[in-house]
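Appendix B. Extra example for self-study. Work through it before the problem class; the solution is given directly after the inputs so you can check yourself.
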Amino acid sequence: MLTNDQLNQWDRDHFLHASTHFAQHARGESATRIVTKADGVHIEDRDGNRFLDAFAGLYCVNVGYGRTEIAEAIAKQAHELAYYHSYVGHGTEASITLAHMVAERAPAHMNRVYFGLSGSDANETNVKLVWYYWNVKGRPEKRKIISRWRGYHGSGLITGSLTGLTPFHAKFGLPMAEVVHTEAPYYFRRPRRDMTEAEFTAHCAAELEALIDREGADTIGAFIGEPILGTGGIVPPPAGYWEAIQPILKKHDILLITDEVVTGFGRLGTMMGSTHYGITPDIITIAKGLTSAYAPLSGSIVSDDMFTVLEEGTDKFGPFGHGWTYSAHPIGAAAGVANLKLVDDLGLVQNSRDTGAYFQTALKARLGSHRFVGDVRGEGLMAAVELQRDPGAGTDFDAGDKITAQVVGAMAKRGVIARAMPQGEIIGFAPPLCITPAEVDVIADATLHALEDVTGQL
Ligand code: PMP
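Solution. Structure tokens for the complete assembly:
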């Protein structure tokens, strides 16, 4: 049996972790948490510590950990057929069944799905779908994609460009020229404090129009947005936002991609976040909740209108020149089929709606009027608590205080994992969709007590 010391040494010497300070990690200054097992909403590390995972991994383990139905489906698939590809019309029972199940759960006008492996590669596929679409339509100059500041759409080259968070751009020479960003629909950080929500929505719409005018609608192929901003701070849009944005896109012949990597399959208390906000997209990105992360799988769901153009294109130009070796990987697909069944059988969309409402109320009750809390917000089972030094005056903590990192650290000591969101002083929550009201209370209490642990002396 390997000792912790041995594993930690190998980790520092060989393992480059995602989004990690390489130097500190290699020097052993940042702790490695080696997670060994999990069940329900709890994870356990190698030291035997047990935590309530209030972020479901990276808001992906929607059905909770340790589901034997999915583990068995994966094992069965691996025994029978570990792999076959999906090039030139090949498929497997699992991938075809999952495509059908996705179409059943997507908005009625969307019936076809292109499978990938990650949210990032699905958005990469989406950009190529958009570019292909406008080429078939004889308008190849419609190449630019509008994204929002604080949007998160992946960390590849074009997808990292779409992501509107500067750490994903700086030192990489991004964003790429095809990507332009517009105002984040972030009411708490509105330009003027006296703006009403309706005025702020009108401001976001006007900013979008101005950007389209500046760039030229003839050069813009699509707009991409998450129904509610996720990694950028867990920010529901201001009232009327999607109602205001969609007609502008329509007027200028700009396709709409809703990135539902986080919101797809129940997180907001509806099967799809697009439905929740009355959005009618041309493409939907799905990933995390598709398999609850039991195996990597993502997808791009396309509308029937868009598919008509793809058909026309392939009739004219031949096969669609795009694919990954692992597109529609049978093990991911088997996990997806078992996962979506479980979401139905356990009534998790309904639980997300009901326990989600309880969660929002519980967080507001404990933290809403705390002297260092500027904002408590969320929708369904996604929520955020934004910290400020003086909420009344609107003064922020210094980034150097690392206040959120400290609070999240204190929460872990109290047995609850939340996420310090990457930009701003924001504690993020997105527990598995099977969470109970009693577990919600544990999360809300731990947050309040950890905040007191850290700020009690201030
Ligand atoms: N889109 C959204 C909305 C996401 O939240 C994420 C990941 N957090 C991605 C895309 C990228 O997914 P992946 O990390 O699987 O590439």
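Self-check: The pocket of 4'-deoxy-4'-aminopyridoxal-5'-phosphate is lined by residues 58, 118-120, 123, 152-154, 226, 230-231, 259, 261-262, 287 (CB under 6 Å). If your reasoning did not lead you there, revisit section 3.
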